[in-house]
Amino acid sequence: MSSMKPVIVLIPGAFHRPSSWNVLAEGLRKHGYTVLTPPLAVCGAATDAKQLIGTTALDDVRIIHSHMLPFLDNGRECVVVCHSYGSLPATLAVEGQTVKERAAKGLSGGIKALVTIAGFSYPIRGKSIMGDDSEPPIMPYHVLEEEILYLQEPAKPLFYSDLDQEGQDAAWDNLFKVQSRASFCHFPHYITSDILINKTYTLCGEDKAVDPSHQEAFAQIGQYDKVVRLQSGHSPFISMPERVVEVVVGAAQS
């Protein structure tokens, strides 16, 4: 099985549907890769708001594993690709599932590489992104009601700053608009620097949602092996999918 191309697992960012990966996924499939696009448990339509209360990255991990583990248990290797908030559940989903960790348990298959796009790294286990016990602030483009965050339209040009107006509108219309507040307040005890496989950070140099200087810090905190710099906005898998295909294929071949 190890001679087969690894399976690519695409983990979306906050408020993003799995379909946000469609163009990238199709590009990877043309290169002969099997691509999985599990949804997040923490976001959904407005009608789902009450069911989302209290959901965290751990709920996302359960969904990721439900899609990925059957392939690992069948001896396949995987590359996990994550965007923005998705870097948290992606990191947690890696724990115990790398090729080396599974081999130590007598299991075949495993995760061989991680690719993070404009994602986050926690500096201290069990602490916030700032390394303390403080909850993250409510963003200016969020409205909090009954433990649910409602995404507001001022986020559109921040998420998709390098798309034209038509592209921004299309990407925005494809977003979920609600996500649990609790998903942003989970302080992980397993962090990116604990991951001992090939790690690539894709730094978005024109990002208006996550400042590039913060991304530089996250890449260092997470002890990434490689940093690829794209002159893109927050979502290069939409604005320049060919370049992101190159990054993912490079990680898959490493």
Automatic annotation (TrEMBL):
Domain of life: Eukaryota
A Pfam family per the record: Abhydrolase_6
Domain AB hydrolase-1: 8-246
InterPro entries, A to Z: AB_hydrolase_1, AB_hydrolase_fold, Sec-Metab_Biosynth_Hydrolase
Protein name: AB hydrolase-1 domain-containing protein
SUPFAM superfamilies with a match to the protein in the record: alpha/beta-Hydrolases
